[in-house]
Amino acid sequence: IQLTQSPSLLSASVGDRVTLSCKGSQNINNYLAWYQQKLGEAPKLLIYNTNSLQTGIPSRFSGSGSGTDYTLTISSLQPEDVATYFCYQYNNGLTFGSGTKLEIK
Amino acid sequence: QVTLKESGPGILQPSQTLSLTCSFSGFSLSTYGMCVGWIRQSSGKGLEWLANIWWNDDKYYNPSLKNRLTISKDTSNNQAFLKITNMDTADTATYYCARRAPGQGYFDYWGQGVMVTVSS
Asked: How far apart are alpha carbons B32 and A31 in whole angstroms?
């Protein structure tokens, strides 16, 4: 399954509601996770199984979706959220999206 | 507390074999359901899953690289290993090991990664 993330670059202001998209080439059956990667660091698990928040992750992060279309939402963007966000599917094989780079405007 | 840390040669020449070690703590690869995987990240291909090894020694490989990869483990020393043969400049990347969440398909803990450069 191939994953397409959009946009590749997103610039938003502190406090904005931000939505990142991940589309699969086939049905993912909700076996989708989101990772945050800050510069020079390893990916960090945010969301698993489409909408389950990993322990310790702020509640401003949420996930949704079904079928082939999935979304990561940050309800109120904070300066520390500057990072690249990757989606990852584990329904059929194991594949990552190409990432969305999130910047502060 | 789960931690993982990768180690490797840093630089190697084309056609050589890459040997990577993942040293971990906070869990055991002899425990039912446990799995460690290797993922790499390059500027050209993004994040790419390479291989998984399970508590029962089952092994799974990325089909596109399968004939070059060998994953193994040393349960008594809490280590996992990855060998990649016939390295090429296109294999230059940061290599991560990660724990697969027990009974799940996603990776919940990652190492810091080790940069590997292939250059003549």
From this structure: 22
Q: What is the pLDDT of residue B46?
A: 86
Say whether residue B5 is in contact with chain A using an 8 A CB cutoff.
no
How high is the mean pLDDT of chain B?
A: 96
Instruction: Spell out which residues of chain A touch residue B52, defining contact as CB-CB under 8 Å.
Output: 94
- Mean residue pLDDT of chain A comes to 97
Nearest chain B residue to A92, by CA: B105
Q: Which residues of B touch A45 (CB under 8 A)?
A: 106-109
Residue A90 and residue B106 in contact, taking contact as beta carbons nearer than 8 Å? yes
Q: Which residues of B touch A95 (CB under 8 A)?
A: 49
Q: Could you read off the pLDDT of A32-45 as tens digits, one per residue? A: 999 999 999 999 99
Alpha carbons A101 and A59: distance in angstroms, whole number: 20
**Rounded to a whole number, what is the distance in Å from the CA of B43 to chain A's nearest CA?**
10
Q: Is a pLDDT exceeding 80 seen at residue B45?
A: no
The alpha-carbon gap from A63 to the nearest alpha carbon of chain B, in Å, equals 15
Strands (E), A16-74: 18-24, 32-37, 44-48, 52-53, 61-66, 69-74
pLDDT range class, residue A14, cuts 50, 70, 90? very high
